[in-house]
Isopentenyl-diphosphate delta-isomerase
Amino acid sequence: MTQVQASAPGKLYIAGEYAVVDGSAAIVAAVNRYVTVKVDDENLPDDLRCDLRELATENLLALVPESRKYYGVIASEKENYKPIFWTRAYDGSIEIPDDEKYAYVFAAMRVIDSYACECSAPNMDRKRYNLHISSELDDAKSGRKYGLGSSAAITVATVRALCKWYGLKPDMSTICKLSLIASSMVKKSGSGGDVAASSCGGWILYRAYDRDWLESELGLIKSGESNFSKLLRKKWPRLEFKRINVPKTLKLLVGWTGSPASSAQLVSSVESSVESSVSSEIAHPFTYQDFCNQSEVCVQKLAQSLEKSSLKESELNNISACFAQNRELLQKLSALTGTLIETPKLTRFIEDANFAGIPAKTSGAGGGDCAIALTTIYEKNRVESMKSAWENHGIMPLNIEVAEAPDDGENSETCAVQAAETCAAKTQETCAVKAPENQPSQTIQNRKDAHLALADAQYNPRANSGFDSVRFMPNALPQLALDEVDSSVHVFAKEASRADGTSATADGTPASADATSASTSILTPSFLWRSPLYINAMTGGSSNAQKINAQLARVAAKTGVAIASGSLSAALQNNALSATFSVIRSENPHGFVMANVSAGTSQSDAMRAVEMLQANALQVHLNAAQELVMPEGDRDFRNWLKNIEQIVRSCEAQHVPVVVKETGCGMTARDVLRLRNIGVRAVDVSGRGGTNFVAIENARRSRGGYDYLADWGLTTVESLIDIQKCDALKADPVEIFASGGVRTPLDVVRALALGASAVGVAGEFLHTLMHEGEDALLQQILDWQEQIHVIMALLGCKSVADLRDNTEFVHSDCLGK
């Protein structure tokens, strides 16, 4: 007899419940209660090991169905080992009997059967086998579920066992993906966090894959256009599962209310209520999107607090605060949807723990099942007091600890990661950041990572950015060929004051005295961009941001577009973070790079920022709305104009052009005039409709409070129109860059036609990078460059100047043209 076995642990959600279903991060922990699956060929005599094709006579099968030979039995301890017989169809595929109790088992069997064939597994002759399933996840006496993720553990254990049976040795990342595939074939609505915990063990930071994408991929497999091996090699949009290295001194405590709950029913109830609230015309002060955004920030904070090398009191306080915030968010969700998440017994559990000074919360969907508490191994007296209170209130303390993945004697590779921020990296490439000698501020890094997570969470390709109101009058007779279209632009070719009275030519080198008059104006360097498109300011200041900046810079280098860094304020405060920005230049040594600083930055720091990136230009950002809503933001803007004037003088003396840009609230003609009067010659209007930093900072606040400012400011289109109508700016123009809510190549052309010299994109490109990868972003920008030419040809325009001068709009009186 041949026999193998494999086990998979159960799970408990630590934070991020419900929001994980829609793409927000969650923390899940594997627990030391296991499902074990044994595979053998016992009692399968030769006369039963026959190929069903030998019985391929329709009459025989119809008359004597019981004579069909079986390929094995499935028996579960939970069903008192009552056997279920399984067999294969004529083509060799596994037939699934009508028995929901084993739905996940059969899904795993079918996936591994196909995958083993594709891999030419060493033991493919083992087509017949028995499965014996035992579980520690339920109450031994009553059989009631504790809510430890039995479906996921059964799926993972079956996948692991059958891989062994066929002689396959997949790593844990592959085990996880195979199990996610099998699980999704049974229940498409799950997040997969339980599968990730059961596959990898330990503490896991998890973000769910795109369910629609996976369903589409499985459709290709079903039609024969793809297979499981190809699917495993692909980058899964949005999927992230990585270990959190939690200190051994941290102890997870679990209590069971005695009331089983159906996670599927609770999640379905919440989803139905959310759909109703979205379609309703009634305005809610707290929306489901608010819940997801704030949950993301809470989970990221908690993950960072858990991963400390030593748990100090301040770090425990952070964990406690995160638990309290997560509980509050779940209570708000419960009120919003009318779903009972925290039952009276769960409330009692939490209050007993808090009374003992231990943070606690519900786990999973709530409605019953378990709750969790976190403390250290040194708090024995508090723990005993708390457990005693639980028992007095009818809550059963469970002897459960966080478990690593079980060692079944096979290769025990560490859990592979396909994180959102690194999904663009090459398959085997690492982008690790060496820790600097002077450790960077964790607060800054936390904030930067929260910005990234929330920016991605609020991404909406259909957001109202005003561009859809701009409709071109078509040109039925373009009178040109596509290859005649040239979208290149000259930027920063403007006169500016210069103290020494000399001037510069277009390439930035000083001109001879004969070439200029004795005036005090110069021509700052003119740069030729072969595309009017540029990657606008995004991030920096954390290791995750460094990886993203490296990827963006490589794409910029390959496509020839300009790129701007995120705000360098963090690096100016802490030089240890400079590498998270300077990687843009190291990965893009010959490209056009813009550094970015705040309007409150001193003249000397602005020049340091330029030097740090060896930048060709400097962006100075205006973000008063963001600063005021940001809990730790600036509150004094009296010196902004003065600072900007000094920065402009210093930079232009070094032939470094300056662009003053908004950060999502737009600019009026009056704003531009005030900037022009202090020497600014280029602005980026950066209007409403793209990444919303007011909403991001509001989500970071413990109680929000500024939801009503989410639509503050002008859209990019409104800003461009206001500037275009200003007579004073027609007489003495300022170069206009446009960004904010740009989602398509058509939006780029619209902005150019409304007077922009170039158009920046941030949120759209960041979303592609984080969910589809570096190669996908590269292809997207190449496609956009080509499509910009196509749209210009449709309009009969050979150049960007033609777009500004020769295009007409529908309802042009509303657009200033």
Notes: The CA atoms of residues 593 and 809 lie 34 Å apart. Confidence is low (pLDDT under 50) at residues 47-67, 408-442, 495-523.
